[in-house]
Structure formats: structure tokens, C-alpha cells
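#lab-general

N.A. 3:47 PM
ok so I finally got the sequence cleaned up, no stray characters, all 214 residues accounted for. can someone with queue access submit it? mine expired

B.Y. 3:52 PM
send it over

N.A. 3:53 PM
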Amino acid sequence: MSADLGFVHIFHPPATADAPILLLLHGTGGNEHDLVSLKEALMPEAGVLSPRGQVLERGMPRFFRRLAEGVFDVDDLKQRTQDLAGFVARASAHYGFSREGVVAAGFSNGANIAASLLLLEPATLGGAILFRAMVPLVPDPLPSIPRTPVLVSNGRRDPLVAPAETERLTELLRTAGADVTLAWQDGGHELTQADVAQARDWLTRARTPAPRKS
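B.Y. 4:20 PM
back already:
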């Protein structure tokens, strides 16, 4: 764990040269440890890059500020997205992995900034798993992210993310060119075993590994 690259974070190298790096992005109140165990369920051989959000909301870490529930501080979101992209770039150079092999796996607030990375800093990610995400912002113009694999996994009874919002996010990413898979869960805002099982199967099919630097 280190703060030298701009974020307190955890890094574990991949077990094989062709395995992806999972950029694990926690939800509100989480930290860099929260989702590390998820790697074993999704792809044991994958590497891990897990940063802690730098914004505090009533003492709870987040990746960007919000004005109210579901109302984002867009200017802060843009800056924090740029900051996170810079961190991934520095980590890539420091630890010796290609950003093309980075797949974000984010929950709630972490999923929202992962979606923002796709829309504002698309070179940062080779793919993304978005658990309980909503539309973070709508850039004009939209980026071109052709065939970038994205899984959106949301709950039909989520009190925070309406089904229409999920559909709007999916359509936005598809319009930008992403290859989006939408998985509906029979649940609310919590992460479930069904989420993890479907994400594991999706990652096995959609992974786009890149060789590590020598």
C-alpha cells in the first residue's frame, strides 16, 4: 500500500503475463481494501490496483463530491476523473502494466467514476464492470470507445438507481460505441452473489489482456 502515486492504494501483480489488471473502485464509505477479495471470485489470476477515494463525505471516502443523493458536483467529478486517470497512468509506468489490460470493477460511487473514466478518459480502461451505476455526466461530444466491453449490473428494485436511469446509462455507452452487456438483478443496491457470478462469466468471455512491459 502506498500514497506515492497520488492515491493511497493496493497493488498486486497478475499471476500470468496475459491476465488483466482489475481497477477496483469502492462505494461510499469503503476503502482500498473493500473489493480486493472480489478479485478471487472474478478472476484469481488477475492483478489488482485498488485506490482509496480522496473525497470525504461525513468522514466516508468517496471518489467525487455530490450535492445531494444522486446529484453530482459535475465540476468536481470531471477533476477527480482526470486525477484518477493520471493515477492509473503513473501506476502503469511504475508497476509495468499496459493500460489496455486494465478493467475497472466498481460498485456504486466507484462504478459511477468508472463510467466517467469511460466517457472522459477512455484511454484509461480496456473494459469495465459497473455494479449499481448511474449516468455520471453526458459529455459533448461523446468519446469514441468502439467495442470497449462493459458490463452494467443493476438491481430491478434499487431505491437509488431507477431502471430508466440504468437504461439511459446503457444507451449512452452504446452510443459512444461500447459493447455493453446489461444484467438485471432481482435485488436492490447491494452487491449480490448473482452479480459476482455473472461478472465472472462476462470477464472470462470479454477480457482483453495486453502483455506486460518487460
